[in-house]
Amino acid sequence: MLTTEIDDTGVALVTLDMPGRSMNVIDWAFAQALDGAVTALAADTRVTGVILASGKTSFIAGADLGIMPGLWADGMTAGAAAAQIRRIGDVLRRLERLGKPVIAAASGTALGGGLEVMLACHARIAARNDRALYGFPEVTLGLLPGAGGTQRLPRQIGLARALPILLQGAPMGAEAALEAGLLDALVAPEDLIPAARRMLAEGRVPAQQPWDAKGFAMPGPPIGSAEGFAAFIAANAAVALDPGPAYPAPGAILSCLYEGLRLPMDKALVVESQYFGQLVTGPVARALIGLRFDARQRLARLGVRPEAGDAAEACAAAMAAEAARLVAGGIPAARVANAAVAAGIGLAPRPAGEPAPEAEPLPASDLQALARRLLVAGALAAAGAVRAAPGHADAVDLGAVQGGFPAWTGGPLAMIDRVGAAAFAAEAAALGLAVPPALAAQGGRFHPEEETA
């Protein structure tokens, strides 16, 4: 997995090349291998500098999401999950405190944990590669970077530039990464390793991170300044609107930044891992990973495209109809709309000329209860349409999300499967919603057990 070659100048070229994989990823085996390599490099008196490179066309694509089920297994607490993820973070901390200059030489993409590895190095260069992507997409999966990304990135490029990278999760190309300060240089692919060697030979790579030096100050306004406080206020306001309170990861990221950037790095990394543990053991990360990664992988293997079909359309129409029924029953339209926004529900407008549903007296409810009614109504419609015309559950879930059902649920059918069809039917009946007969059957499922476990 990791091979080390030491030249006659003392430069150690450490190459990561995971066997049997098209791209390198971060998993427990990688953490163990890197830990062993760091120990060996620290002890070898011949080593004067280190180049960390990849044997593949990309650097490290990110964390292997296959390790996630172990972090949300039954009985796994947030604290235990935090301790697990620190196994990776601790190795990266040892790497940046090696006492010898370390340069990351990226042949291509470095996302999530891959970028965290690069940030733990003392310098970062990359090959010019139009297909390479850099960034932190964790927020789109309900998570945050758990191996130091929330703490190293703003210390490297400043809070203002780090906020959109962490909160939006959109990857950027190599040129943009250079401009943002994620990279120190871009070079021709054939010059990647020679350029890294020249940087070491010329003494342009320090053996210490800036944040470990006495008197370090983060680029930009201090975190406790009026400007820093204003940046947090603006970011919190933006998160409250998009993606909204149903998605906890952006708020956790902001908390990591606000708390961690006031602390020394070692304590800051503990804060980050604690927030990661809370997210990874919560329901939203599990649902988003199931929807945006696992479901797409399964459909790709089957050659099925996640297009909105009858079930997804029925789901969207049912939520719109239930919203109209609530309004007709005396709930203010603004309150229903606010409930939908808070839950991340996109309500499709009713067709022009369609009469409003018959009004029924409804008790005043809080926003969460109103949103739950909309979600249950939509999920029932999706379930009824699938039972009438069987379709692949993953395609229905993805199609429904495209049509306005919130992604944090994992999709309507996954939401039903998590509680069980019988329990979901009982909840719907208690709300006075019509339940498809087949849904009430004991043990009825849309996904195989292991897909929503």
Automatic annotation (TrEMBL):
GO terms for molecular function: enoyl-CoA hydratase activity; long-chain (3S)-3-hydroxyacyl-CoA dehydrogenase (NAD+) activity. GO terms for biological process: fatty acid beta-oxidation. This is 3-hydroxyacyl-CoA dehydrogenase. Signal peptide: none annotated. Pfam families: ECH_1 (PF00378). InterPro entries: 6-PGluconate_DH-like_C_sf, ClpP/crotonase-like_dom_sf, Enoyl-CoA_hydra/iso, FA_oxidation_alpha_subunit.
